[in-house]
Write a structure and sequence with these properties.
heterodimer, A: globular, B: alpha+beta
Chain lengths: 359, 164
């Protein structure tokens, strides 16, 4: 029997800019066990609800993470709006949904680029990020920010998008779709890529369900659980089916995410075709009193926002449960028995966002 | 088949323009870069400093200055949306990086100070004229306060009726 050794992985690692630390218990080249530890960038943002009033808290919620920024603002605003019984105008709902799908596109393209970089395909990485730049440009034109959008507010959105710009966006989405068709071929058909991804880090449907995984990580194991199906915002008005894949390996997760980008393009087109006119916000009077639990589908999976208000301008408690935290237990399960060389790719396939997890 | 698409990519990359962009890019209208204040229009009301989520703006009415800490500003556009005189606006260029947490202070322009003083003077004159008119009315006769008291007496009587 060979001796066991422990290899530390992270929080600073060339393939992974996210500060997560894993103690990999090794036996020769095989990982026997992985012990994760987080807490390197805890900022205590949830505690700030006691110091910022409920309108200003939207900006704090947006700054939980740089990639799911829009989703965090959306989840918090929707939770407060449900407490206060605010009926958000349809145009605001449609634009919110449009932006959250656009942020899904940019998040998944970022992830595809990182994956290409992890298996050493640098030109593909550059191409993915160049395509992502188009999504960021659309964000900059319509919201005024590239990463932090500051466009949500309690009772609607802060900025309307002119109809001419939306027409232009439709054309650009069609162009992006054509470019992505070319880009997705190496990910799905290339033999070298397939040898790195196929059969690596298999998570069965039972395991994924029992460990409470979320998002594409869960759907790649064959469970069709998508919070968008509940029809929050304007998702009730668009046709889509949760994308699943049955293999449960790294290749299935890649395939799932690529198909989700195409699905996001389709949803955005449907929204642009049906875009209603009218107001973008309603005036908000009074202070929230009550509690609500809001679930939304972030690019990485299901995120949960719990808000408890007490009738003053300061909220009692806000809690965010992020998809990466749910997926960490699944990651530890997939790491058991894998090769050391596959660890970076497996950590990447859950699309980790440690800033979200630690808040 | 794979070789054909590979060839196409190479040929396309040889012929097409560079994919990189110039460093001096054109910012779209509405980019939230940095906060600018037109000191000719500002009246130092202080609403921006109240609405700022990060307390980056300070208004000193005595010294007639408006200052902002650019490193604390989060470019949320709250101050611009709440400015009653529309003197605040968002500049397109992003805040330049720096080593120190600087504070940028702007003094109210001579034109704005003169305009405000003229306004104050006019307001004082109006107030003096109103006071003089009131004094003249009071001197004419004490009939004016009497109707004001009548509804005040009637008001408490109404709830008493509803109780019965």
């Amino acid at each position: 029997m060979s001796t066991r050794s422990v290899i530390p992985f992270g929080p600073q690692h060339p393939v992974l800019p996210e500060p997560i630390h894993l103690d990999l218990v090794m036996e020769d080249e095989k990982v026997i066990e992985a012990i994760p530890s987080i807490g390197f960038i805890h900022r205590g943002l949830e505690k700030l609800v006691e110091k910022k009033d409920f309108n200003e808290m939207v900006y704090v919620a947006e700054r939980i993470c740089g990639i799911c920024s829009l989703g965090h603002g959306l989840g918090y605003s929707e939770a407060v709006e449900h407490i206060m019984d605010i009926d958000v105008p349809m145009r605001a709902k449609y634009l919110r949904t449009f932006w959250s799908e656009l942020s899904r596109v940019h998040s998944h393209l970022l992830w595809l680029g990182l994956l290409a970089d992890a298996f050493g395909f640098e030109s593909l990485y550059m191409d993915c990020w160049r395509l992502r730049e188009d999504a960021l440009d659309m964000f900059e034109q319509s919201t005024g920010g590239r990463v932090i959008f500051s466009v949500m507010k309690i009772g609607g959105i802060r900025r309307d998008v002119p109809d001419e710009m939306l027409k232009d966006f439709y054309q650009r989405i069609c162009r992006m779709e054509e470019e992505l068709k070319v880009l997705s071929k190496p990910f799905l058909n290339d033999m070298a890529v397939q040898t790195r991804l196929r059969g690596v880090g298999i998570l069965t449907a039972e395991q994924a369900d029992a460990l409470g995984c979320a998002g594409p990580f869960l759907r790649a194991s064959g469970i069709a659980r998508d919070i968008r199906s509940t029809g929050y915002c304007a998702y009730g008005d668009v046709d889509f089916e949760p994308i699943i894949s049955n293999d449960g390996d790294s290749y299935a997760r890649t395939e799932c995410r690529i198909k989700e980008i195409f699905q996001a393009f389709d949803i955005m087109k449907q929204l642009l075709n049906k875009m209603p006119g009218g107001d973008i916000d309603v005036p908000v009077k009074g202070f929230p009193n009550g509690e609500y639990m809001m679930r939304i589908e972030q690019p990485r999976g299901e995120a949960l926002y719990y808000v408890k208000a007490n009738g003053t301008k300061f909220i009692d408690r806000m809690r965010v449960r992020t998809p990466t935290f749910a997926n960490l237990s699944g990651l530890v399960e997939t790491l058991k028995g894998c090769d050391l060389a596959d660890v970076p790719i497996l950590v990447l396939t859950i699309d980790p966002c440690i800033s979200c997890t630690e808040r | 088949m794979a070789l054909v698409s590979f060839k196409n990519t190479i040929l396309h990359n040889l012929v097409s323009k560079p994919k990189t962009r110039r460093a001096e890019k054109e910012y779209p209208v509405g980019t939230r870069g940095h906060v600018e204040n037109d000191m000719d229009l500002c009246v130092l009301c202080g609403l921006c400093s109240i609405k700022c989520p990060t307390h980056a703006i300070t208004v000193d009415k005595a010294a007639k200055t408006w200052s902002i800490m650019p490193m604390s500003c989060i470019q949320c556009r709250c101050c611009v949306d709440n400015c009653p005189k529309k003197s605040l606006s968002m500049g397109l260029r992003f805040q330049e990086p720096g080593e120190e947490k600087i504070t940028k202070t702007f003094k109210l322009s001579e034109k704005a100070i003169a305009a405000q003083e003229a306004l104050m003077k006019a307001a004082k004159e109006r107030a003096a004229a109103a006071a003089a008119a009131k004094a003249a009315q009071a001197a004419q006769g004490g009939a004016a306060p009497a109707p004001a008291k009548a509804p005040a007496q009637a008001a408490p009587a109404k709830p008493a009726e509803t109780d019965k």
